[in-house]
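Hey, quick one: can you model this chain's 3D structure?
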Amino acid sequence: MRRRTRGAPSRVRISAGKWKGRVLEVPSSARPTSSRAREALFDLLGDRVAGARVLDVFAGSGAVGLEAVSRGAARAVLVESDPDALRRNVEGLGAEEPEVSLAAGDAGAALDRLASRGEEFDVVFCDPPYAAGLAERLADRLAGVLSARGTVVLQRDTDDPPPSAGRLATRSRRAYGRNVFYFLEAAPAPSGL
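Sure thing. Here's the predicted structure for all 193 residues.
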């Protein structure tokens, strides 16, 4: 979820699945991923969503994680430092644990807690605030909660440089307007070790 600098609070809709058409509140400090970009993201993820364990880091309204559950993901954990609107969205949908869990607070600390419990995710969506360098600082922590065949989707602005992602390797890049998705996976171990 991108941080917004000004403007009125906005709302987004879940576009498919059991909660299709439901409106989500967006925190005033966030700028949501466009509905076109979210649709494209789920088209690209395709069958990987059904039954998946999904982690939505910097979740904002929870649109990506909640959309994933709506489309058949087994579980979503939503990480957000300002969780008030997110809590209202989860309650409004009637979503409950273990299907949807909230991890309020700092993203790094939440990733550390999840890793210490041995949690792994098949799809990790990370949309950190613009120009903060958070993706690079969190890359190894994201890799630490990724399942063996999992995918990290890192959202960036078109003006941002490609990610330097530590233990993650970029598999592909897709752009939708100003939204750019980098699809990352665990980097292969160096040979000879």
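One thing worth noting: Confidence is low (pLDDT under 50) at residues 1-8.
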